[in-house]
């Protein structure tokens, strides 16, 4: 596993992620079939968070599927303000009000992290006791570049996840080559 090193540190990371967010603002990675798989594993949810959502496609799907749920998405770019149910936030950084809160934590943006261990820790800590992390990962898009700083094999991601969570299912994700890991807290504690 490798992580791209930005010459000017964290500020360059944010600037680069923001640039590519704006460039790809109309792109949608998330597909309804992924949402159906998640709903199969978690048919009811009161609180859902989606990380790295770009244009709120994930939140819109979840709002249709879980109409009464509180749904929020994070996006590092200030474009977050343009979309409903979205806040500008770096998904690696914990927020006290999100600890132990979410029935579903979803992301297909793990390849954008510069600190995969801390990101997984943050997401695991956001899970309610019976919550699930739905992590969609595509090894082909994880290339260790400025846009996608994490360069990790799926097996490496699975090993990192298993240090914190139990993987209860593995399925095909939204796009060719992507895998959806459904995870829960170890021993449901």
Task: Outline the structure in words.
By secondary structure, this protein is α/β, with parallel strands linked by helices. The protein has helices at 9-23, 32-41, 57-65, 116-126, 154-164, and strands at 2-3, 47-51, 70-75, 86-88, 102-107, 127-138, 150-151, 165-172, 178-185. The protein has a 7-stranded mixed sheet, sandwiched between helices. Strand 2 (47-51), helix 3 (57-65) and strand 3 form a beta-alpha-beta unit.
Task: Record the SSE blueprint.
Blueprint: E1 2-3, H1 9-23, H2 32-41, E2 47-51, H3 57-65, E3 70-75, E4 86-88, E5 102-107, H4 116-126, E6 127-138, E7 150-151, H5 154-164, E8 165-172, E9 178-185
Summarize the structure.
The chain is an alpha/beta fold and 189 residues long. The protein is built from 5 helices and 9 strands, in the order βααβαβββαββαββ. It has a 7-stranded mixed beta sheet, with helices on both faces.
């Amino acid at each position: 596993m490798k992580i791209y090193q930005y010459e000017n540190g964290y500020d360059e990371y944010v600037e680069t992620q923001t640039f590519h967010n704006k460039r790809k603002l109309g792109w949608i990675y998330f597909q309804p079939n992924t949402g159906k798989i998640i709903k199969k594993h978690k048919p009811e949810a009161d609180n859902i968070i989606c990380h790295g959502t770009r244009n709120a496609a994930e939140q819109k799907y979840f709002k249709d599927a879980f109409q009464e749920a509180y749904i929020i998405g994070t996006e590092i770019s200030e474009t977050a303000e343009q979309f409903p149910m979205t806040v500008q936030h770096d998904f690696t950084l914990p927020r006290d009000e999100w600890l132990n809160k979410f029935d579903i934590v979803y992301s297909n943006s793990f390849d954008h992290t510069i600190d995969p261990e801390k990101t997984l820790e943050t997401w695991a800590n956001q899970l309610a006791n019976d919550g699930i992390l739905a992590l969609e990962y595509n090894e082909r898009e994880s290339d260790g570049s400025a846009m996608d700083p994490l360069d990790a094999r799926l097996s490496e991601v699975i090993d990192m996840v298993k240090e914190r969570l139990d993987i209860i299912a593995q399925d095909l994700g939204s796009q060719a080559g992507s895998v959806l890991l459904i995870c829960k807290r170890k021993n449901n504690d």
